[in-house]
Design brief:
4-stranded antiparallel sheet, alpha+beta, 2 helices
């Protein structure tokens, strides 16, 4: 009976460890140096970057530190980047003029109701585009230098959970076999 109680305690401890596996915070730093701001959203000449950050990852924070250049007659306020067809970042939003601009900022997206999840593919898509296209099929501006930092949390994938459960089952079966050997000895 004592072996049975120890086995149940080990199983409960293993299950509690399994349930306690937390979501893991991660950071993606995207170097935007040299990316052109071309045409309106969805145009095939726009720069699109795809990053696999994991299925159903929760995007929670965004930070940027960038240098932009808008070519006349384009404005700095027209240079934008779209995240997963959901969230738009326009660093120079109030600068309705051409030329150079430096922008830095950050935000916890949930504070504004703007946090979001990737789908089952785990892809985080960034599309760099112009809010107003002054030079069709050509660049209107350039992201001269800098980075955009995306913070997100991931949860273990189902295959990871399956391996953990199988591992606990193997440990339990081994312990039971040893108990039975000691009981028969």
């Amino acid at each position: 009976m004592n072996y049975h109680l120890k086995g149940m305690a080990a199983l409960c401890l293993g299950a509690s460890c399994l349930l306690a596996v937390p979501a893991q915070a991660a950071t993606l730093v995207v170097d935007v140096s040299g990316i052109y701001s071309n045409d309106e959203l969805g145009d095939p000449i726009n720069t699109v970057l795809n990053f696999n950050i994991g299925a159903f990852s929760h995007v929670t924070d965004l930070a940027w530190d960038v240098e932009l250049y808008a070519d006349w007659p384009s404005w700095l306020s027209e240079m934008s980047v779209m995240f997963n067809d959901y969230l738009i970042l326009t660093p120079g939003i109030n600068d309705t003029f051409d030329g150079f601009g430096s922008y830095a900022g950050s935000g916890h997206l949930a504070d504004y109701g703007l946090d979001f999840y990737t789908d089952a593919s785990g892809i985080l898509k960034l599309e760099f585009y112009e809010e107003f296209d002054d030079w069709p099929d050509d660049w209107d501006g350039i992201w001269e230098s800098g980075t955009i930092t995306v913070t997100y949390t991931t949860v273990p994938e189902p295959a990871t959970w399956a391996m953990l459960i199988a591992g606990f089952g193997l440990v339990g079966a081994t312990a039971r076999r040893r108990r039975m050997q000691h009981a028969h000895a």
